[in-house]
Design goal:
- The protein is of the alpha/beta class.
- Helices cover 56% and strands 9% of the residues.
- The chain has a four-stranded mixed β-sheet.
- Helix 2 packs across helix 9 and helix 6 packs across helix 7.
- The longest helix has 28 residues.
- Strand 2, helix 9 and strand 3 form a beta-alpha-beta unit.
């Protein structure tokens, strides 16, 4: 038991350090642009890179997303783009330690991006876990779960549900079928990255959930690799 507790404490310290390192990397890139802009451009490019990995090269949708990626990347030097790639690698390493967890929401807040000017604040993950615990208390082990999150933010509530399922002996990657929507592109990119890197089966849709009709522009629909039958 003592060994288990020591491992948990070690993991907690590693997670804390990883969040701090990524946040510092974002702040190091700021100067011409604010940390908020750096963070937003990072998650946009990362999400678009994952999306286009799943699309036929030079196809219509691939071209739309490639153009958006290049327009964002053109703001930065080759050295800065290398730093963005390093941040992405560190995020993958963080998930290897932490499992399902709202890392990007925590990084966003730790980097100083959450303020009255941007109007975005992300729920602390322990509160998301509390909500998930109440919502999923009657779920049986191994049971398939469909989640429709109409205002997903950074995906924290979904990730909390995934973590709870795993901690209960289940497998969120096999049990969860997710639709996540939000009006804000930043939130969609964050959610898409986090659900993709955690191997979850999900569709992320940018748009107003209250006004959404049956026809959604294809470029506003982001399917995770697992949804497309690909494992990262």
């Amino acid at each position: 038991m003592a060994a288990v507790e020591d491992k948990r404490e070690l993991n907690a310290e590693q997670i804390k350090k990883s969040v701090a390192d990524i946040s510092q990397g974002i702040n190091n890139l700021s100067g011409t642009f604010s940390p908020y802009t750096i963070f937003s451009d990072w998650v946009k490019m990362y999400a678009l890179a994952i999306c286009n990995m799943l699309e036929p090269m030079k196809g219509a949708l691939w071209e739309v997303r490639e153009k958006a990626y290049m327009a964002t990347a053109s703001k930065y030097t080759s050295e800065q783009l290398k730093s963005f790639a390093e941040l992405s690698g560190r995020l993958v390493e963080l998930y290897d330690i932490a499992g399902p967890y709202d890392a990007l929401g925590e990084i966003y807040m730790f980097s100083g991006c959450g303020n009255k000017g941007t109007g975005q604040f992300f729920t602390p993950f322990h509160l998301s876990k509390l909500v998930a615990d109440v919502a999923l208390k009657n779920i049986k082990n191994g049971e398939k779960i469909r989640i429709n999150e109409p205002s997903c933010g950074g995906g924290g509530m979904i990730l909390a549900a995934a973590r709870l399922i795993n901690e209960s002996g289940g497998d969120a990657r096999m049990q969860m079928d997710i639709v996540a929507q939000d009006l804000d592109w930043n939130s969609i990119y964050m959610t898409y990255i986090q659900l993709s890197l955690n191997g979850l089966n999900a569709v992320c849709i940018q748009g107003d959930s209250l006004m959404m009709c049956s026809s959604v522009p294809r470029e506003c629909v982001l399917e995770t690799p697992r949804k497309r039958g690909v494992l990262l």
